[in-house]
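Sequence in, structure out. First:
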Amino acid sequence: MHHATQAQQYDNLNTLQFKYQWIDVTSCINTGYAHVQRADQSMHALNTASQT
């Protein structure tokens, strides 16, 4: 019985770790996306400026 609870605790720990990793990954993607959008806007502004 004690062995089972230990395994259960280990499972919970892994699940928590996975959740936090996923949050990290998601925030990284969101940050990267924001940077790409910003760079895209800058490029657009440069293109517009060079056309006029």
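Second:
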Amino acid sequence: MVSSMLSAIPEFVTRGLQIAGGFIVVVGYAMVLRMMGVKYLMPFFFLGFLAGGYLDFSLLAFGGVGVIIALIYIPAQSAVA
């Protein structure tokens, strides 16, 4: 059933999705390079790589943890300022 649904999708749509997937990788690298220049984000940068090396999480789990940290960190920063 799934293969019949996938074969019904036109070739230009699947090719466009492949190209868009490549852009997502480039945008991710650009975000990491941009973040490396911001000093107050460096602990998150290194903790993320450390956690990625030692924990067996999926990318979805890391994204969820990142959202939770952001939801805690952003209001805490505005309360301090």
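Remark: The chain has four helices and no strands.
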